[in-house]
Write a structure and sequence with these properties.
about 130 residues; mainly alpha; about 0% strand
Length: about 130
């Protein structure tokens, strides 16, 4: 596979990841039974695995070291925060209010990660705001 294919796979799975998370978050807030459907529980793991593997593939193809590239380190830190907030939002939060706050936090962190990916800067979107 060429780098471009892996990059587009990464972008497509990023879009699928956030779209699925938004839908599951909506179902969580609406207390929908759809959140318990088998496909709803399995599909995010498949998509996220492809998303992560394509990201690692790009790092490998470009011979990048995440420990020397601060923007990659920021993406990994953001990923950990997104996963933690996401699990609280969808199933581990003790109250609906806690889950809703974690949901908004996870979306915010995902936006930060996307900004880091586009700007190649740990400042993410702030880089554009400060001109």
């Amino acid at each position: 596979m060429t780098y471009v294919i892996v990059k587009y796979l990464h972008v497509i799975t990023a879009a699928a990841t956030i779209a699925g998370f938004l839908l599951r978050g909506y179902w969580m807030l609406a207390e929908s039974e759809k959140l318990q459907h088998r496909a709803t529980r399995i599909a995010p793991h498949v998509i996220d695995t492809v998303f992560l593997l394509s990201g690692v593939g790009m790092i490998w193809m470009l011979h990048l070291n995440p420990f020397t590239q601060m923007w990659l380190l920021a993406k990994f830190a953001g990923l950990i925060a997104y996963i933690l907030l996401g699990t609280i939002a969808i199933k581990r939060g003790l109250t609906k209010q806690v889950r809703a706050i974690a949901f908004v936090g996870a979306i915010s962190v995902f936006a930060y990660i996307a900004g880091v990916a586009l700007t190649k800067s740990p400042l993410s979107w702030v880089r554009y705001l400060t001109g």
